[in-house]
Write a structure and sequence with these properties.
By secondary structure, the protein is an alpha/beta fold. The protein is 30% helix and 23% strand. It has three helices and three strands; from the N terminus they run αβαββα. The longest helix is centred in the N-terminal third of the chain and has 12 residues. The two termini are 22 Å apart.
Length: 90
């Protein structure tokens, strides 16, 4: 078994954010409270103007964060997130 297989998370949680900072905070807190922890979080801001500059104050687990310069839409934004995921499942 190679070392990449040992570190690959079981699944990747993809979060596409657009103008929903209050909901994002609740979502990340809910993920942090899970007892199952074999997952990674991919957070893509889809060109919103309200994306918080101080995310670390409410991120409680490692999160891969990407800021897109413009809104790519739902499908393309999620495809972008999926390309950066390393989990066995999305």
């Amino acid at each position: 078994m190679n070392s990449a297989a040992l570190t690959q998370p079981f699944f990747s949680v993809l979060i596409l954010h657009w103008k929903g900072t209050a909901l994002l905070q609740r979502c990340l807190k809910a993920l942090a409270s899970q007892t199952f922890s074999d997952f990674e979080v991919i957070l893509v801001d889809n060109g919103s103007k309200d994306f918080p500059s101080s995310l670390p104050e409410y991120i409680q687990q490692p999160v891969k964060v990407f800021n897109l310069p413009e809104n790519l839409g739902f499908a393309e934004g999620n495809n972008f997130a999926a390309k950066h995921a390393s989990g066995k499942y999305l």
